[in-house]
Amino acid sequence: MARLNQAKLDRIPASRYAFPNEHKEPLNDASHVRNAVARFNQVQGVTDSERDAAWKRIRSAAKKYGVDVEEKSWRDLSHGGKGRRAHHG
Asked: Could you give the CA distance from residue 13 to residue 15 in angstroms, rounded to a whole number?
């Protein structure tokens, strides 16, 4: 995964984050999409509604970047994102 410095993060539009209000989990390439899935349950201070919207953005980005995400809902993720099934396919 390419590291994003603060200048690069500042150029990513809020709409390209899984959690845009918090600027958490950028979705700008396949590596970041996989990372967003893995870290999904670690994001704190968000509502279930925000999680639903974030999951929709993640699934859309996954499709765009060719990342297979088998879980249909974030509720299907095991605790802490362990056991996730996001891979490049």
From this structure: 5
Q: Tell me the CA distances in angstroms from 22 to 18, 41, 43, 49, 88, one per residue in order.
A: 9, 14, 9, 14, 26
Q: What is the pLDDT of residues 28-75, one digit of tens each?
A: 999 999 999 999 999 999 999 999 999 999 999 999 999 999 999 999
Closest CA to 46 of 19, 15, 72, 26: 19
The residue ranges of every structural domain in the chain are 12-88
User: Letter for the amino acid at 87?
Assistant: H
Decide: 50 and 21 in contact? Cβ < 8 Å: yes
